[in-house]
């Protein structure tokens, strides 16, 4: 039997990363969902603190409103150009839930979507939540230190937010 108090020490292995009834990821999501949310400004401040600790410039306004169309709602090529990124995938993004405004998932690369057939979509659906499609946060990763990559920074941001008691519904997503 899973002891929910010990889940903070577990990152599910790949074979346990899939979703099924009573799985670790659903249990942890329920715990996170019961935590209080914080204002966007607190999240932005914490992420910028972390990025600056890596000598990556802070982002004053990471809020991006998706384009009103079914496909290609985000223009990753323009982010690359505007922020002078080496690769259009050099971003970390956050999506939020609609009802309680929790961070639903943290990701890296150019694959932001509001689907429910993904792991994070299944998790928030299990909680009776939906995606807030009105905006996402995108943090361009300009000047990534040579010894790191975008996935390392994604993991660092997620773990830094967790260490600062910021709930993330898909608690483990940034570690895969």
UniProtKB/TrEMBL annotation:
Full protein name: Uncharacterized protein
Organism: Agathobacter rectalis
